[in-house]
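Justification of resources, computational component.

The compute hours requested in this renewal are based largely on the per-chain cost of generating structure records like the one below. Each record pairs the submitted sequence with a full structure-token output. That output is archived, and it is also reused by downstream analysis tasks.
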Amino acid sequence: MALQLVALSFVLVLVSLLAAEGQKEPDPTVQGAPRETATCRRPQWGSRLQLAPDQDNYKENEEVMLSCPEGFQPSFTHIKCVREVQSISYGKPEYREVWHGRDSGGGWVRIRSNVACVATCRRPQWDWRLWLAPDQDNYKENEEVMLSCPKGFQPSFTRVKCVREVQSTSFGTHVYREVWDGKLSGGGWVRIQSYVACVATCRRPQWGSRLQLAPDQDNYKENEEVMLSCPEGFQPSFTHIKCVREVQSISYGKPEYREVWHGRDSGGGWVRIRSNVACVEVLQVVPGTLEVSSTSIKLNWTCRLPDACQNMQATCRAMPSSPPCEAEEVKGEEMLHGQEGTFTCPPLQPFTDYSVTISLPLGTILFSWLVRTEGTVPDKPEELWLDPSTGSLRWKALPSCQGEIIGYQLNITTRSTQDGAFLETERLRLSSSVTEHPLPEYGPGSSYAVTMQGLTAAGAGAASLWEFQSNSSHTPHPLDISCRSVRDISPSQGTAVLLLHPIAHPNEAAREHQLIVAATHNGTGVEGACVGEPQPFNASQQPGAYMAAVLNLTTSTDFVLGDGTRGQGYHNAALRLGSDYTALLRLVHRSQQVEKFTCVCYSFSVVAGQPPGSWRGTVIGVVVLLAIFLLSAGILWLVLSRKRKSLPSKAKEDN
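The structure output for this chain reads:
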């Protein structure tokens, strides 16, 4: 009995434990366990917003529809509530309500701000061929809508938007009306005052990349006037065009159109354009006719569009320059007439930049050319001086006004006060950057004559002459040339004997000497013959400076000038009766930048009646006369001495 009571008590306790376990909250992790349904409270977004179903609470993921009074539209038309875990507290999740809205693509996005009733406009009832994007029955205020049309047509506006304006006020409430604005090609918005329709259009003509169209669009309406222009110096064959759609054929009872462009001619009428419109060079300078000299610019021109070449003006202008090469202002202007002609700028300055322009009255430039006149030889140098402390010449560099200075030609002629027959000329080619040069063998007893010329690509300019003496502080003067005399002149044979000495300096090896003959006694002619290039002897002409001999002198020697011998490049021609001659023994040294001519001159004349060896005969005659004089004096002395001896004897006899 007791055992039965114990068993009954165990069963009752087990039943009570099972009942208590059944009243606990089910474990959500256990599949199949019952769960309480989650809900969200009604969103508090706005009084005008209407929800369907209209409830205070909504189940999780329950779809709710939103609507607004007429003339308004919610930003979302379908919403649903989702409960998201916000945090974990004491091992239990805490949830928050989040509303999602369906976007235009059908997807669900989180709603991050209040949903409100936004003012809307109904779809505009314009041309049935118009396509609206997005394609809706209602559009929000200020929502931009794109318009398009079938191929071959274009809407008068490609972008529109709705604006709600207050039309009137009734019982303190505004009454609105819908107004549509259209976007202009420049980006501004204007009120659409009329019906928007699909208008027949033409595609932008593909005539050339340089052609500029205004307005600049991909499509143009039928009969819309378009202006054409080109870069400066070019002009289109038509300045105004418009598109016309012509019926090309009939297909299944419907006309098929083609685009045809018309252009306005010079008379103002419209003509059909049958070829591509291109940018044509209005004025063309004839190739090969551009002539530029140091003082002028000349060109030949041709107008390819006569209507566009009215009242053309050609000008020459000097470009800005800097001292000391300042360009003078040139007033070169000329009106051009006809279809072709020649334009010449007035006298210009050498080596100067000028702008040559041909333009139309409104400033349209048809031709522009920047050109520099050719250079000429430079002006002569004006400033050169001797630095006595160094014996160097110094000068002021020439400016590149007549042409780019590429160098200097410097000739230095040295004469000796001890030997008037000696002449040495150094001819140098110096760089344009050089402004000083030492005098050769500068020292007492020398006289220098210096000539200097500037050099440009056009040649050497005028020469300036300066003279210096190394041992004198007063104004220098050139030393006279006193050539050595010549003995044994034979007019009948046309010869003369010259006593020649080597010119080579002690430290230099003997070099080839040249004997040059010039029919002159003039000092300037002698200097010219020393540095000049002798020509071959020509017996039929008045002889100039010619090469008589080429000698390898090592010691002094007598040389017979005029014996008629010939050699490679020289001719020792017979001397002419009645001529004055200067013979030059010359030594030449040439290097890349320097030419040095050292000369010793001999001067003589071939005179008729002059006996051969006249100098020797004169000497012999003087000696003979002196001997006769001495002999006569001796005889007279002898006679007088005898006479004195005879006088005492005679006196004795008389006594």
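The chain has three helices and 50 strands. The helical segments are 2-22, 523-531, 614-654.
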